[in-house]
Amino acid sequence: MTQLFDLTGKTAVAIGGNSVLGSSMAKGLAAHGAKVAIVGRNLEKAQQVAAEIEENGGIAKAFQADVSTRADLVRVADEIDAWSGGCDVLLNAPGKNSATPFFELEMEEWDDIMDVNLKGIVQTCQIFAKRMIEQGRGGSIINISSVSSTTPLSKVFTYSVSKAGLNSATQFLARELAPYGIRVNAIIPGFFPAEQNRKILSPERVASIMNHTPMQRFGEPDELQGAAVWLASGKASGFVTGTLIRVDGGFGSMTI
Question: Domain count of the chain?
Answer without folding.
Answer: 1
